[in-house]
Amino acid sequence: MSETRREERGARFSPRLAAAGAALAVLFAATIVASQTLPDRRVSYISVVEAPAGMGAGDILPALSPLDSRAAVAGAMVELERATAAAAEATPEVPWGRWGLADVQVHAERIRWDDGRDAYVAELDDGRTAILTLERGPQRHLEALVGRHPEPGQAAVVLDATTGRVIALADAHNEERIGPELARRSLAFAASVFKVITGAALIADGHVTPSSEECFSGGTSGFELSHLTPNPALDQTCWSFATAMARSGNVIFARFADRYLTPARLQEHAERFGFNARIPFEMSIESSRAVMPEDRIEFARAAAGFRHSWLSPLHGAMIQAAIANDGVMMVPAIVAAIEEADGTVSYVHRPVEWRRPMSPEHSRLLDQTQADTCTTGTARNYFAQRSGWPADLRVRGKTGTLSNRPAHGVNPEVYFLYTWFTGHSARGERRVAVSGLVASTPTWWVRGSHLASEAVLASLR
User: Fold this and answer.
1) pTM, entire model
2) CATH of the domain at 160
3) H/E element, 385
C-alpha cells in the first residue's frame, strides 16, 4: 500500500518526532499595524512600515520599496522570532478600486452555494451579491478533505495561473493555537518552499543553471558553519541544482547562497515575489514575511528555508502561478461579478497583472529545477508514484517541512510540524497553481503534499 493510501486509511506515527515542552513561543509578533477608513467600513492591514504622516481617509499607502522594507525588517521583523504573545488579529488592506478588484470585502462565513445562480455567492455588507470564482467540484472536494482528519490545521488553495481567479480555497483547524482562516494567514514558516525564492535569485543573477553541480556531505536535517566550505575528502555525493531542488538539498542551497548572494540581494528577490507586501485581494490576507539575517550561518540557513520566512498558502500558490505564467504574477481574485438588488450586473472581473518577479526565460529555467520533485523527489509518493496517478498529469513544485521551534531554540509549549507543497500543473489550456499546508503533531494523518495532490486531481480531472 502506498504512503498516500495509508494516510487516507488512518493514523500514522512519525518515529522521529517527539513532543516538545517548555516556554510558550508563538510565531507571530506585533508587526506595525496601520488602518484605512472608508465609508461604512474600517479595514486594517499588516505592514512593516508606518503609515505616512497626515494620511487621510481613502488614501492608499505607497508600495514598499526594498530599502524601506529592509529598514523596517531590521527593527520590527527580527522581533517576530522572539515574540511570546500571539499577534493581534488584523486584516490586510484591500486596495478598493485598484488592481481590477471589486470594491467589496468578502466574508468567509457568508460564502454559500446558490442553486439558482449555479455558483458560489456571498452577501455583501451593502446588500449586493458577489458571484464568486470558486468552482463547485474542487471547492467541495477540498472542504471535505480538510475536515476529514483531526489535524491541528489544514489548508488548500487552487488558482487559475493565468487569470489569478481562485478556483478553490479551504481550511480547517482543531487547535486554537492554529486558528481559523489558515489558507490566508502566514502562520507557518515557509520552510523549504523558500528554496524556490533562493533558486530564483541564483538563476536570475546568472550564478547557476539547473545543471550546475555541487558535491557535499551531510546536512540532511540541518547544517553548521563547517558545511559551507567544500571538503573534497568528505564531499562524495554530487547533485545538480535541479536534483537539489527536487530532493531539498540543504547544503547545496546554503553554499550557493553563501558563495553568490548577499542578504540584501536575496531580500530583494523575496520582495519581488510579494514577501513583506500587501497582497491585493477581496478577502483578508496576512502578508507573507521574510527577513534575511546578516549573520553568515543564519543567512545560509534562511536561504535553505530554515526559518526567517513565513508564508500563507494563498501566496504560495501565487508564487507557483507566476512561475507557470512566464514570470507574471496575477492579482488573485475571488469575485467574478457583482449583482445589484434589481439583478443587474455592476461589476465583472478582469485579469490584472500585479508584478513580474522574473523574466520568462528565468522563469522557465527555475521551473526546470522543480521538474523532478513529483517524480523522483520529495513529493514522488503523492504524485507520479502514487497508485492510480494519471500518467499524463505532470506536476512541478516544491515541498517543505519544518517545526514551529523558533530559531533561538526555545521549545514551544505545543509542538507543530508544518508540511508544505506548492506547485502547478496543466491539462489542455487549463493551468492551475496549488498549495497545501498541514500543521501536525507527532501523531499525524495527512501531509501538505497529499492535500496539494488532491487539489490537482479535483481541478484537472
Assistant:
1) 0.81
2) 3.40.710.10
3) none
